[in-house]
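Bumping with the actual sequence this time:
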Amino acid sequence: MESIKYMSLALYNRFRQLILYGIIGGFCASLDFFIFYSLTTYLDVYYLIANVISVSAGITISFLLNRKYNFKVKDNALRRFMTFASIGLGGLLLSSVLLYFFFEILSLEKFLSKILSIILVVLLQFLLNKYITFKKSNYE
């Protein structure tokens, strides 16, 4: 029984950042989708403008949560946020292109298109943020 507990703890420690990034990412993606859905459904905001607003909110909340609870870095906050925001804006551009492609070109349903774009962008952003934005600096 101890070996199972030890293995579980070892696996958790090894994949802790990925697990927490997934939880935070899921929360922020849900927030992104909720804002997008609300803006397009109830306020009749054009879907690409709604995407900019919803992704921007997701980026900001994601940075704050990942910085404090996941990667636990406190140094160079402004530089890290600018890097995170740049990656986020790249993700926004990619998300918008994917959303347009899925919705306008492939004629997929608007909300399915949004979900597909979120999945692809989140995977890419995890890798970039883990190895660039939240990389431990040489000063710690």
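The tokens above came from a reply further down the thread. DSSP finds four helices and no strands in the chain.
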